[in-house]
Amino acid sequence: MAATRNVMRAVRVFEFGGPEVLKLQSDVLVPVPKENQVLIKVHACGVNPVETYIRSGTYARKPALPYTPGSDVAGVIESVGEHVTAFKKGDRVFTLETLSGGYAEYAVAAANRVYPLSDKLDFRQGAAIGVPYFTAYRALFQKGCAKAGESVLVHGASGGVGLAACQIARACGLKVLGTAGTEEGMNMILRNGAHHAFNHRDPNYTEKIKACTGPGGVNIIIEMLSNVNLDTDLQLLSCAGRVMVVGCRGRIEINPRDTMSRESSIVGVSLLLATEEERHECATAVLDGIEAGWLKPVVGLEYPLEKVAKAHEDIICSSGARGKMVLLV
């Protein structure tokens, strides 16, 4: 559909609720880029768990209704607003955020949240970069203060953020341990940087992790499901170890004494709170990783826009992640 028709297909949310509130409409106005903004013809858009929390109305940040979800798009610049010099029509790009929403045929984004997409990667991979890789880098280095030679356990390593964390940590000289819920997931994380993989459905998997790390414990844990794992995580840490809380779907009871005995830390991670300088640092690391060849996004399940409700259902309820979920536009 040409942008000159002024309307496009886009997913709209008119009320907070379950996946059924995601409505695909075919008569949504194509947004116009303003000053320091670009309009992108979307080819693919990543689906992130946080988008399901926002849609349900349970997240701290609630957008004004109606809205279009989606932040991680990959596509081609359609037009640019005033004062944009870094991009031109026809450039391949990916985004960290959008202003108008990414579950659509076109999306407007601030030019400083848009990055060039290497010819080494396709659009599906481009849609798997933004939130996963920036979050993983922030968790490991900006908040976790990871250093080469340390050990990191990526708890839930076969999803988008988990695989990103494995790739980045391995490239930066850490000893990488990862968990997944299936044999396929374990093999995937081993192919993407993990030195050791564990099945978190195995009742004895924590003992196997302890045997692997030895009495010293693990220095950093990247935690995707803290409401399930945090209590156990605190018992796996080294002295001065730290748990980076990337994902949470509820409450959990812990024993604070576990932090005292190791002087360990629990640190929340939110990409939304990154400063401009921190985002720039993330972007530099990511673009360098793509150029060097070790940053290779793994695309998992793919859905057309018509199946967006199924995508939101599956990202929460499926029995084991295998890469980054994307919508194909």
From TrEMBL:
SMART domains xref list: PKS_ER (SM00829)
Protein location: Cytoplasm
Key words of the record: Acetylation, Cytoplasm, NADP, RNA-binding
InterPro entries, alphabetized: ADH-like_C, ADH-like_N, ER, GroES-like_sf, NAD(P)-bd_dom_sf, Quin_OxRdtase/zeta-crystal_CS, Zinc-ADH_QOR/CCCR
Keyword Transmembrane helix annotated: no
Main location: cytoplasm
MF GO annotations: mRNA 3'-UTR binding; NADPH binding; quinone reductase (NADPH) activity; zinc ion binding
A GO cellular component entry from the record: cytosol
Record domain Enoyl reductase (ER): where: 17-327
Highest taxon of source: Eukaryota
PROSITE patterns associated with the record: QOR_ZETA_CRYSTAL
Record's subunit section: Homotetramer.
Xref: PANTHER family: QUINONE OXIDOREDUCTASE
UniProt family annotation: Belongs to the zinc-containing alcohol dehydrogenase family. Quinone oxidoreductase subfamily.
Protein's UniProt name: Crystallin zeta
Phylogenetic placement of the source organism: Eukaryota, Metazoa, Chordata, Craniata, Vertebrata
